[in-house]
Amino acid sequence: MKQLPFKPEAVLFDMDGLIFDTEALYRDAVIKAAEEKGFNIPVSVYLETIGLPSTSARALLAMHIGGELPIEDLWKQASDLFRTMVATELRLKPGVIEILDWLEETQLPWAIVTSSDHDTVLSHLLAVNLKDRFMHIIAHGDYTAAKPHPEPYLKAASRLRVNPSRCVALEDSCSGVLSASRAGLMTIMVPDLVQPTLDIQSLCAYVAPNLHDVLAVLIDRLQAK
User: Fold this and answer.
1) What is the mean pLDDT of residues 169-184?
2) Is the full-model pTM beyond 0.85?
3) What's the CATH architecture for 10-21+91-223?
4) What is the dihedral of CA 144, 148, 149, 155, to 10 degrees?
5) What is the side-by-side order of every strand in the sheet holding 206-207?
6) Vertex 149, ends 120 and 137: CA angle to 5°?
């Protein structure tokens, strides 16, 4: 188990694929919506959109479709399918509650830093009764440049009044790792649908198999002299 270079003074969470097991739902919704309109979007193409803001994801999918189908029509149908799935299939990633309990106990600040918009974040948190446990949310609309640009994480560190180098970022996507590492954060990746390349691994302080392992790393570093 790799030790973080500094004692953490704040923990910043990505949302999709890190707090919530939503990436598989997004994937299935997009692929199914395309199939219903007579198009095939390979899983490999969808995986390239993970961690990107919706505008960038739509542009990438539009490039694959080649203009034969208005991307906004596809996106709307996929969004409708996703909302239907979320109503019955939204699940927390194992270990989220344990990390939140530990953060409260140690009185370390934390926040969500996501490419999703505030309405989506609020909807997801309400669905699992976590709204009151995330006081700080940095979402689409709070920054000019989205991940993989460092601005979202710099904005979060500023809001929490913590030096970025003393913040831990928890990310599941390559785009998120790039954003956090460029902002100078200690980045722990918990891969979801996409495994990190060697280049992405080199940007991480640690690549963890799950959030329970992340909590062990955080506890170990905070207790170390």
Assistant:
1) 97
2) yes
3) 3-Layer(aba) Sandwich (3.40)
4) 70
5) 137-140, 110-117, 10-13, 167-171, 186-189, 206-207
6) 35
